[in-house]
């Protein structure tokens, strides 16, 4: 067995004075050591050959000061919170900024001459000039000075870049300015003035948390906040504003059924690969075949009726041809979307429905003078959708993408054709699940239209074989368009394909199915029954197929049409039940979240107070993992070794399913969050009902003395050190 393995080094800075020979030797030794370690970790692998050596070069542009003076942006300079020491003759802006902070000058704070007398008071040994960020911590430790560094985004919003964790008496704040490849440090003499405008329009004094840049009116509240925020990662925290603090359903466009949806599938030949006998004493992966695409089928489902027949293609360039044909169809559909058709005349029943309507059929809001009733229609089929408010009518726009569904896209089909998406320089967007699997990916075919590849398995997590059993025969609408009733009966039964036999393109020319022994599945170590083999032969003969290639075409075409019927039926149920089309979503959780918001019409209040969020986060428990052997001995009259003198014991294994779902079905916090001033007693807390209209989230101090441990038997400790690791437990 052969496996391609990559060994690599991290990026290393290269300067004019760098010893390239020494650097090369160091990096080479690292790769050799990684290779030797890989072979020595009981893997059984040995190096066969080196396929390539790749050298990657990147332009080095680190965060560091520069020798060129940079002006502070005007808007920041107007805060008068910054001292930018002018040092045009050297690259020591970090040093001058630190000196300006520790030894302030009343007369000329922007001149280096004001700080020359203090040059020898600090230790700058080993500090580079210009100074990179990674040396700031080094300087802090040498001088026992805490240094916080901030920077700003394009909109000049300040954010923390480096926050010191050193506990010391002296703390200073610096601003890092970056202009193209140049960087510069400045002293922040008032962080409050610097960030106050981005936090509030009020001019009164505020106390700023240096870690998250939250503002407080009193120093006492800041100290309380620091107790919760002190162990959080530095970041500029942005909370919802008072005007936008309610979360409710807003994706009304998703109730519009997408007119065009593509369903697709690939077929591959399973070319055998050379392999060696693995060592049975160690774990191994047996790679015995390579899947090479040989053909595909895709079908475009159209809301208005028949659009095009299924596209079936079989040749060695299948992935490339798939993208070419699909892009052509996508451009045609985009043209249809961009040329909306007028509404057809209403029927009498539609007129009556419109005249009698008091509420919008989309948002269910009552029509008003400033949001009048209009006729909403499908711009493609020209059909009347319903009486709609003007706001929803404007929001109900045709999609900017064409959904393309594969069943198990993430696990299989994506790997077959995704490389073909790079045929031009148009944008490719990915939503990754892991490095190898993607939830979805999109390819632009024009400036504002995309092919969006989706996985139907994310909505219907089962095999097509099992899903087919959920539909009645009369629900296979698309199968009926291309097969008569007798043939549908054959195709609805599980199909069989000799994948392990189908290992070359030449096998497509076989004029009949191979013998039953060739249907053996090596991966699952399963053979098919005589009855199943006879069924495959009946399909081959009933459809008058000439060779195995045509059998492959029928197989993939059937899978695509079955997927179309299954997912279109799923869409129908979702639209009827939730008034939402799943084709707007990437996964079931996103669909179910919107369905909940739409059906319940709930408006969930979001925190605007960061301390409330920290309060909840600090209450999170869990994340404890352990491996243990459960061991207990039953002692009762039903046991052969029953001892009546010992304690009577019965064993029962219990497990609870859907704990999260159970908890979320109970009363949950919804709105009107305020800090409570009530001095609750223990009895007050015990008297609170789990279904009260007003609830409390409490932080309590508990003491659990050893004499109560056996009585209470907590399933989890009240609190655990998250960094604690216990390797061995002795019982």
UniProtKB/TrEMBL annotation:
GO terms for biological process: DNA biosynthetic process. One of its GO terms (molecular function) is nucleic acid binding. One of its GO terms (cellular component) is DNA polymerase complex. It comes from the Eukaryota. InterPro entries: DNA/RNA_pol_sf (IPR043502), Endonuclease_7 (IPR004211), RNaseH-like_sf (IPR012337), RNaseH_sf (IPR036397). It holds the Pfam family Endonuclease_7. This is C2H2-type domain-containing protein. It comes from Nephila pilipes. The lineage of its organism: Eukaryota, Metazoa, Ecdysozoa, Arthropoda, Chelicerata.
């Amino acid at each position: 067995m052969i496996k391609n393995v990559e060994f690599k080094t991290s990026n290393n800075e290269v300067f004019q004075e760098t010893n390239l020979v020494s650097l090369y030797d160091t990096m080479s030794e690292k790769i050799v050591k990684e290779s030797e370690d890989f072979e020595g970790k009981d893997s059984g692998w040995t190096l066969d050959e080196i396929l390539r050596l790749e050298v990657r070069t990147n332009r080095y542009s680190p965060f560091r000061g520069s020798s060129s003076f940079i002006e502070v942006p005007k808007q920041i300079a107007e805060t008068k919170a910054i001292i930018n020491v002018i040092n045009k003759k050297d690259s020591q802006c970090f040093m001058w900024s630190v000196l300006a902070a520790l030894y302030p000058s009343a007369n000329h704070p922007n001149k280096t001459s004001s700080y020359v007398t203090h040059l020898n008071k600090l230790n700058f040994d080993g500090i580079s000039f210009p100074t990179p960020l990674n040396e700031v911590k080094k300087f802090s430790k040498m001088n026992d000075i805490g240094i916080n560094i901030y920077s700003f985004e394009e909109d000049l919003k300040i954010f923390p870049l480096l926050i010191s964790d050193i506990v010391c008496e002296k703390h200073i704040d610096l601003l890092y300015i970056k202009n193209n490849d140049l960087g510069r440090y400045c002293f922040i003499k008032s962080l409050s003035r610097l960030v106050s405008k981005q936090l509030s329009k009020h001019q009164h004094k505020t106390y700023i948390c240096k870690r998250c840049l939250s503002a407080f009116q009193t120093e006492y509240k800041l100290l309380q906040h620091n107790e919760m925020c002190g162990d959080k990662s530095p970041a500029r925290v942005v909370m919802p504003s008072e005007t936008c603090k309610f979360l409710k359903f807003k994706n009304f466009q998703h109730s519009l059924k997408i007119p065009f949806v593509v369903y697709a599938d690939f077929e591959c030949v399973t070319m055998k690969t050379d392999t060696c006998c693995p060592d049975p004493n160690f774990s191994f992966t047996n790679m015995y075949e390579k899947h090479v695409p040989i053909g595909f089928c895709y079908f475009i489902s159209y809301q208005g009726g028949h659009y095009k027949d299924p596209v079936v293609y079989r040749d060695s360039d299948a992935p490339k041809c798939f993208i070419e044909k699909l892009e052509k169809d996508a451009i045609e559909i985009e043209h249809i979307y961009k040329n909306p058709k007028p509404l057809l005349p209403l029927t009498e029943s539609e007129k009556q429905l419109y005249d009698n309507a008091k509420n919008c059929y989309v948002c269910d809001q009552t029509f008003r003078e400033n949001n009048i009733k209009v006729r909403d229609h499908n711009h493609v089929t020209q059909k009347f959708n319903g009486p709609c408010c003007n706001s929803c009518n404007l929001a109900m726009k045709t999609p900017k993408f064409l959904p393309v569904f594969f069943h198990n896209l993430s696990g299989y089909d994506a790997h077959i054709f995704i490389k073909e998406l790079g045929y031009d320089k148009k944008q490719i967007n990915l939503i990754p699940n892991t490095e190898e699997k993607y939830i979805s990916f999109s390819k632009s075919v024009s400036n504002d239209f995309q092919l969006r590849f989706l996985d139907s398995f994310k909505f219907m997590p089962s095999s097509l074989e099992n899903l087919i059993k959920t539909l009645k025969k009369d629900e296979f609408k698309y199968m009926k368009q291309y097969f008569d009733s007798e043939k549908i009966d054959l195709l609805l039964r599980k199909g069989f394909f000799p994948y392990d036999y189908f290992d070359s393109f030449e096998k497509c020319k076989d004029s009949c199915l191979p013998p039953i022994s060739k249907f053996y599945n090596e991966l699952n170590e399963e053979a098919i029954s005589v009855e199943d083999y006879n069924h495959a032969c009946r399909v081959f003969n009933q459809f008058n197929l000439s060779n195995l290639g045509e059998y492959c075409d029928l197989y993939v075409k059937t899978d695509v049409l079955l997927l179309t019927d299954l997912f279109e039926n799923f869409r129908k149920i979702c639209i009827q039940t939730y008034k939402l089309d799943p084709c707007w979503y990437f996964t079931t959780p996103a669909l179910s979240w919107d369905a909940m918001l739409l059906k319940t019409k709930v408006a969930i209040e979001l925190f605007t107070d960061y301390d409330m969020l920290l309060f909840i986060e600090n209450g999170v428990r869990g994340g404890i993992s352990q491996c243990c052997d459960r061991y207990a001995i039953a002692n009762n009259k039903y046991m052969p070794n029953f001892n009546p003198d010992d304690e009577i014991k019965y064993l029962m294994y219990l497990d609870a399913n859907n704990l999260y779902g159970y908890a979320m079905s109970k009363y949950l916090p919804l709105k009107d969050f305020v800090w409570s001033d009530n001095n609750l007693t223990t009895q007050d807390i015990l008297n609170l009902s789990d279904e009260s209209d007003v609830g409390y989230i409490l932080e309590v101090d508990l003491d659990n003395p050893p004499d109560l441990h056996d009585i209470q038997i907590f399933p989890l400790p009240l609190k655990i050190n998250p960094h604690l690791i216990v390797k061995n437990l002795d019982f």
